[in-house]
């Protein structure tokens, strides 16, 4: 699954620069994660870096975008031009 940011985001700006895929950007009110770019940091890190740095724990799995570990790995390879 990709991740998404909940409404209790405080716009602290710490998650955006941590995303190796550039999937996080400012939305109309809070930061948002583009599902097509989110790999949960698969291929880059062992854990999602946005979740690691979020001070209010407002980043969760997005049930609207279910993806297997294999799908996240394939997305990583596509995004990095390895396939």
What does this structure look like?
The structure is a single chain. The protein has 83 residues and is α+β, with helices and mostly antiparallel strands. It has one domain (3-79): Alpha-Beta Plaits (2-Layer Sandwich), CATH 3.30.70. It contains two helices and four strands. The strands form two sheets. A two-stranded antiparallel ribbon has the order 1-4. A hairpin with a 4-residue loop joins β2 and β3.
Which SSEs are present, and which pair or pack?
Blueprint: E1 3-5, E2 24-26, E3 31-33, H1 49-53, E4 59-61, H2 69-79
Antiparallel strand pairs: 1-4, 2-3
Record keyword descriptors for this entry.
two-stranded antiparallel sheet, alpha+beta, 2 helices, Alpha-Beta Plaits, 83 residues
Top CATH class: Alpha Beta
Structural class category = alpha+beta
Rg calc: 12 Å
How many E strands? Answer: 4
Tell me what portion of residues adopts beta-strand conformation.
5-15%
H/E element order: EEEHEH
DSSP summary: helix tally: 2
User: What is the percent of helical residues?
Assistant: 10-25%
Work out the count of structural domains: 1
């Amino acid at each position: 699954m990709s991740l998404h940011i909940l409404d209790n985001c405080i716009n602290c700006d710490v998650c955006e620069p941590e995303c190796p895929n550039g999937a996080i950007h400012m939305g109309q009110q809070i930061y948002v994660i583009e599902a097509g770019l989110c790999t949960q940091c698969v291929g880059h890190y062992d854990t999602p870096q946005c979740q690691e740095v979020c001070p209010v724990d407002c980043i969760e799995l997005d049930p609207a975008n279910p993806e297997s570990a294999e799908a996240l790995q394939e997305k990583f390879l596509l995004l990095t031009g390895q396939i």
